[in-house]
Amino acid sequence: MVNKAYSYEEPKQALNSRISAHAKYSNFNLHEWIKERFRIQEGDRLWDLGCGNGNFTGFFWELVKPSGSILGMDKNSDLIKEAQGKYKELPKKNVQFMIHDFDDPLPDTGMSYKWIFSIYSLYYTEDSLKLMQVLKNQLAPGGALIVIGPGPENTKDLNEFNYSLTGKNPDEEHIKRIERIANEFKPLFEKIFTKELVEYEEIDSVMNFPDIESFSEYYKSTLLWRQSTKGFSDDKIKEIEVKIKEMIPNSIQIKKQMSCLVGRID
Ligand SMILES: C[S@@+](CC[C@H](N)C(=O)[O-])C[C@H]1O[C@@H](n2cnc3c(N)ncnc32)[C@H](O)[C@@H]1O
């Protein structure tokens, strides 16, 4: 399906805030989950699409080093620069970063990959069919394409809270994007990889914020906040900030849901 409205620009600070909030307040550790769920091994070649600031690069490197390799790709040059800075000590022939929009034709890296991961990024693609087919062809024998992202039930309570504060529901594209892995990508994977070679699961978790400040910082780093308050005056934003304090008890819990779709080749 082709839809330009799925496209998204990630502000660097917003991504850092969300990563840090997840690390501190979530009862779910995605790094650990990936380690248990997939047998990533020394020597494996891995492609991390939409790698952002390299949140998973060091973790992947620990699993594939010293002979494996990682290609991190993202369209955001600031985030790629941050990743390059963070991992400048790692061997450049094994750990590479590339600025590239995955909706443009993918460069021929001359390689095939045991693992292609896309963590909270591929659901921004404008043309899922084209991209999935190209990615499948980049897999080495026994390889897997793994798409991780929000599940259909993700942050429903945050959406309700946001509505009571801003009077705005998430826009239609935002809702469709959240449901994309389940509703659009899964049937596509079953066609491309065949049903027998596709796995899909949804995993529930919670984020427990100990105080209003930590919750507020997280909430304001979300796309939901940015879309809902777009065009609001500074006074209106200040009014909402006061309301957040009035409405939130001392601690707050947000339900999250992740989905994971895997397509394998023999
Ligand atoms: C929510 S962040 C996730 C980053 C990283 N995978 C992580 O889990 O920390 C989404 C990332 O996808 C990237 N992205 C979105 N659309 C993209 C596109 N069309 N091509 C390449 N990267 C894209 C954004 O720049 C951003 O870094």
Task: Report what the structure shows.
With 266 residues, this protein is of the alpha/beta class. The chain has one domain (4-156, 171-208, 255-264): Vaccinia Virus protein VP39 (Rossmann fold, 3-Layer(aba) Sandwich), CATH 3.40.50.150. Helix content is 41%, strand content 23%. Helix 4 links the parallel strand 2 and strand 3. Helix 5 packs across helix 8. It is globular and about 55 Å long. The two termini are 26 Å apart. Bound molecules: S-adenosylmethionine. Residues 8, 10, 15, 19, 50-52, 55, 74-76, 79, 101-103, 119-121, 124 line the site of S-adenosylmethionine.
List the helices and strands and how they pair.
Layout: H1 12-25, H2 30-37, E1 45-49, H3 57-64, E2 69-74, H4 77-86, E3 95-99, E4 113-119, H5 128-137, E5 139-150, H6 156-166, H7 172-178, H8 180-193, E6 198-209, H9 212-219, H10 223-228, H11 234-247, E7 252-264
Parallel strand pairs: 1-2, 1-4, 2-3, 4-5
Antiparallel strand pairs: 5-7, 6-7
Helix pairs in contact: 5-8
The structure holds S-adenosylmethionine.
S-adenosylmethionine (SAM) binds at residues 8, 10, 15, 19, 50-52, 55, 74-76, 79, 101-103, 119-121, 124.
